[in-house]
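Single Protein Entry

Contents — chain, fold
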Amino acid sequence: MARHVKKGDMIVVISGDHRGQRGKVLSVDPVKGMIVVEGINRVYKHVRPSRRNPQGGRLQIERPIHISNVLPLNEKTNRPTRVRFVTDGGEKKRVASDGTQLELVTRKARKQ
């Protein structure tokens, strides 16, 4: 199913503790409906000393937030916008609510 955000998009958080903050999408999990955004929802993870991390301590990492709490940023207006998908002449396009074309949607070949 097509999602309104994808990896690499600039987004704006529209609800929750981080409302109004902007960031770049690092990863999308379409099954769970969660996304990880750079600089948003950072938490401390306490780790024990190990071979990988001999010092141990606290690591600051980004945790996922729900995809319904964000909207993509329209670069033309610099505001959050809703997205729809339009098929035009056999090409699927991602279009902002004001009609600005965000990008062409292409399918990646699946590895078998």
About this structure: The chain has one domain: 10-105. The chain is about 0% helix and 50% strand. The chain has a mean pLDDT of 87.
